[in-house]
Amino acid sequence: MSDASYRDAIFTTPLDRVASFSFDEQVVACFPDMVRRSIPGYGQILGMLGVLAERHLRHGGHVYDLGCSLGAVGLALAARLPPEAFTLTGIDLSPAMVERARATLASECPEHRIIIEQGDIRTIDYRPASLIVLNFTLQFLDPADRDALLGRLYSVLEPGGVLILSEKIVAEDEAENAWLVERYHDFKRANGYSDLEISQKRTALENVLRPDSLATHHARLAGLGFERVTTWFQYLNFASMIAFKARPGGHPHDA
Ligand SMILES: Nc1ncnc2c1ncn2[C@@H]1O[C@H](C[S@+](CC[C@H]([NH3+])C(=O)[O-])CC(=O)[O-])[C@@H](O)[C@H]1O
Ligand SMILES: O=C(O)C(=O)Cc1ccccc1
User: Can you tell me the ipTM of this complex?
Assistant: First the structure.
C-alpha cells in the first residue's frame, strides 16, 4: 500500500449527476489535503488536542477516537504524550480509511498503544474511557441517532472524563449564517478550490453532513448530564467544544 496523499480534485470537472459524498477509496487517497483545505482550524484543533489531553486525560487512561479517518487524533496525541500515558481505540465505518490508518500509525508511532477498528460508532460495545474525541464525525450521523450515541458516550466516560466534539455548525440567525457560509466559501477559494468544486461538493454533502447549531450541541450535552460545556474554538462555521463529566465529591476538571 502507498502512503502517498494526492491533491483533492474530486469535484474539479462538471458532473452530470453529483452523487452523495462517501468516504470511499477516492476520498481516502486525497483526504489529508481535503481536510487541510476544507476545514478551517483543522491543524490547530489537532495540535490543541494533545495539550487538552495532557491536562485532562488520566495517566494511562483510555481514549476513543470516533470516526478516526486516517488516525490524525491518535497521531496528534502520540506527538505530545509518551506511550505509557494512554491507550487509544480509533473506530471508523469506512474500510478504506481503517486500512490506511492502521498502516500510518504502525509506521509513525509503533511504540504507542493505538488500535484501529472498523465499526459503526452507533452500535459497537464501548469500554470505560477517560477521553472521547469526535473530531468532525457527529455531523455525518442521522440527527435522530445523535442523542442516543452521546448518551452512551456519557455513560462510558469515567467520572472526571471529558468529551471533545468538533463540528461544522449552523448559526441560528439567518443573516449571520449566510455571512459565515459565504466567508467559508471564500476560505475554500483562497485554498485553491474553484466555484465549481465548491458548489458540487455542497450538493454532494446535502443530507449527508447535517450541522447543528452551537445552542443545540450545548443543550444536548447539558441535558445528558455533562457538568460543563465550553466552546474552546471557533473559526467561521466550524467549532470545537469540550464537555466535562463531574467527579462526584471531587474538585471538577483537574488533570
Ligand atoms: N456511523 C459511523 N461510525 C463510524 N465512523 C463513521 C460513521 N459515520 C461516519 N464515520 C466516519 O467519520 C469520519 C468523518 S471525517 C473525521 C476526521 C477525523 N476525525 C480527523 O480528525 O481527521 C470528517 C470529515 O471528513 O469532515 C469518516 O472517516 C467516516 O467514515
Ligand atoms: O463542509 C464542507 O463543505 C466541507 O468540505 C467539509 C468536509 C471536509 C472533508 C470531508 C467532508 C466535508
Answer: 0.98
